[in-house]
Amino acid sequence: MLSDVETNTVSPVFVGRAGELAALTDTLARAAAGEPQALLLGGEAGVGKTRLIEEFITVACRREAVVAVGGCVEIGADGLPYAPFATALRALRRALPEELTEALAGQEGELARLLPELGEADRSPNDEHGTARLFELAARLLERISATRTVVLVLEDLHWADASTRHLLAYLFRTLRSGRLVVIGTYRADDVHRRHPLRPLIAELDRLRTVRRIELDRFSRAEVGRQLTGILATVPDAALVDDIFDRSDGNAFFVEELACTVESCGDSSGLSDSLRDLLLVRVEALPEDAQRIARIIAEGGSTVEHPLLAAVAGLSEDDLDAGLRAAVGANLLLPSLDTDGYRFRHSLVREAVSDDLLPGERTRLNRRYAEALENDPWLVRTDERAARLASYWYAAHDAVKALPAVLQAAVEARRRYAYSEQLRLLERAMELWDDVPDAVRATLRPLDHAEAYPGCGCEPGANPLRYLDLMAEATVAARFGGDRERSLAIAKKALRILDGDRDPLRAAWFWVQRSLLMQSLSRGDGWQELATAEDLVRGLQPSAVHADVLASVASWGALHRPGPETLVAADRAVEYARLVGEESIELHARLTRGWLTIDAGDVEEGLAEMYAVRERSEELHLVGVMSRAAINLPSSLESTGRSLEAVAAADHGIEICHGHGLPESEAWVRANQAQSYFSLGHWDESRAAADAAAPLARSRKSNGLVAARRADLALARGDFEEAAEQLALNRRHLGLHDPQPQHLICPVRHAMGLAAQQGRLPEARAMFEAQSDTGLPPGTQQYALPLLHAAAAIEADARGLPATDPGRPAILERIRGHLKRLPMLVPVWAAYGVLIEAELARAEGADTPDHWCRAATAFAPLQRPYELAQIRHRWAEAILAASGDRTPAAGLLREAHAVALRLGALPLVESIELLAGRGRITLVGPGSPGGAGEDEGAQPAEPVPTVDAIESFGLTSREQEVHRLVAAGYTNRRIAEELYISPKTASVHVSNILAKLSVSSRGEAAALAHRFRLYSVG
Q1: DSSP-derived 3-state class of residue 768
Q2: Which of 17, 59, 806, 850 has the fewest CB atoms within 10 Å distance of its CB?
Q3: Strands 1015-1016 and 944-945, bridge-based pairing
Q4: What is the tens place of the pLDDT at every residue in 769-794?
Q5: Are 796 and 764 in contact (CB under 8 A)?
Q6: Which tens digit of pLDDT belongs to each residue from 841-859?
Q7: Is 411:445 a contact under the CB 8 Å cutoff?
């Protein structure tokens, strides 16, 4: 290779771009403050993107930033997986060897998929979490390496980026939150047409506030004049500037080429208006060997290694060096800084030379590249070898050679979790399939990876690939790569091929795939597809497919129809998986079985199985099972009332998910932990857990779950605007296409609570009736019992309101019917049963202190302070109504009030304070801060409502306060000032009051208050 060739920069003067350079430089200051920066730089080919980046890099280096540049690699029409990231990481490794080694510690095996020099990649089982793991670990690596120094990562030519590179870049732009890091991507704007794969990414990134985009314009006439002055080292004539400006239209690269031609010719006569012709004239001016080398390099890709070039060119070393020296000296080729090779100074030159090749020339060149690589695979980097060989043979139009090369490249792409590239290669193999004779197809590699799919040969791993096997690999690759629409289309096509063919196992496998895809695409719940698969395998000998079908049926049933039949399916899945030695499927099925066993009432046995699965999956490093256990175990513990244990299990799960780069699974675990913290009365921790889950959530379901947790807390704390917002988010994310009880019942409860707070009791009833008609089957106690409690409490709160009395008996009967059908097999479920019975009695005006005493006794050992505070409030109310004995009532109210204050449960605080006021009970006991001792006869300082009359109208505690002020003649503004709320909120309360009182004006509302003496000063 030439290392001593001197080349002059064509444009030594940096012209214009002051604003753009300032914007780039500004990212350095922001990054230095610990705020990662993301920027896209676009512009047409030749407009000066690279020159601007070079100038920025000079500034960054002066500020002691570490700069790593990586470019997307084009081979024909193909990109190499992760090419710019691999190049940039190599640069970081050279610049910061010790720091990078420290940041990589423990993750070399995973990150070797990006940078093969780190060693052999982990041979972990492939699953749909693989890409997410790799991306998360890459993000953390960059955050760690930039923790104490500014690091600039430049990724050039994104218009050539492969899908995996685009996905990783999008992930980084969305998730980077810390580190002194600047990530810049450049692309050709004129290449990004409507259907270009980069276009959706640019649109997505434009919606992120954290990403800035700069579009470079062409030079003005004055800027072209300054550029020519720098190139020609003299001030050009105005006529020459006008001529070149008109011909170049302000394109910086075109200006340079025209200027070089003027230097060679002495004037501008005879200049071509076509940039392509202009460039080719310069190439044709080179010696013959240099022209030949340029043509070879143009077809070899973005960069061609010197040994590979030598093998393809067939020139002597002296002739090769002479030709290279001429091309480099003419400023057409440049030595590559990253490899022992060469690249064109500008891609426009390469494209012009490549486009000028005759079809036969192009085919022969690609064949020579392929033959050279086959003869000596070490001519190129290991991570590029398979993809480039496949591309060369494909471009050589040799299907016999291309098909096996393409299939091998697909295997390499899968091992790197580059599933989108794997899919593209597998689809290319499908295209080539019919052009290859049977004798060649009989020598193809065996089935690579398609989960439980049975290869078409007699012995898995020993028989050549068949077309149906190819479709199975493509189905999984598309699903893992996120292209679920394409995956579904391939699965449907495979089933059409199998239609009428007696091949039930393979058909069943494709039906399971269709079920998964229908669910993930929100096209349905996937049950019909699973039922079809189950019918196909019924009566067949045990197999991996059979076990997989049963495990899928059990998992689906656990989410949608928990019960004895689903537990039987889980038992059979475990049995079949053991018989065929599929431990991964067995562990998945055992996890489902443990969950269902708990629902059936055998809590200890079910939890023991789930703990055992967690331990075994960690021994085998089955990440898919580990992530499921991390999610499902805390959820099952919480459902049985073991919230403290659930928090500990969630901590373990968070550690597992975080350590393996599983942000989506971690979001689920943290959201489950938020629920357990809520149950335990640690509401600040609950909010923190939900907030930590939010940025990790990637799917619609996990985002919906986070919204549900936030809605729980907002409702309990009286922030009804927040609750409504989170409920809307939950519904938008989850929809109605996959009606899992956990995703349907909780939002119904939230919506009922909001409707009741706003005086819309008929709507609350209608929601409950609709869910009641859908069903609350056994196995849904965790969600169904709180719903029944909410429905009963809403009816009890509205008792005596004339408009609601007629429908109440039917609603209460529905609640009792569901309660009878739900087995109360664990203490927390039984406690909810007692609480619901007490609320039902209150709704009928028949509750006694004994009802609430029994509920308090049931909840006392369960570490559920919020429910216990609610019960004590109602217990005190029942005592005051039954006997008027204020001493026990005072103790209960003080305990409940202290808990409600600590939790920030404002609606409960207000209700307790109103009841205390009506009962002449002070809530500050002896020795309390600010307390003056207990005085049961003390008068409250504020007016209090008369209990029986006001409750008949169903006003909330806040509405009672507002109504009292309306009766006193206050305006909305004065009400807002008195109660420390906004005028708008006061107006909403007044509207609700008018609706509940069935009056049309404030005056009527005030008259009603005076007529019934609803408020009196004590």
Answers
A1: helix
A2: 806
A3: antiparallel
A4: 999 998 888 888 999 999 999 999 99
A5: no
A6: 999 999 999 999 999 999 9
A7: yes
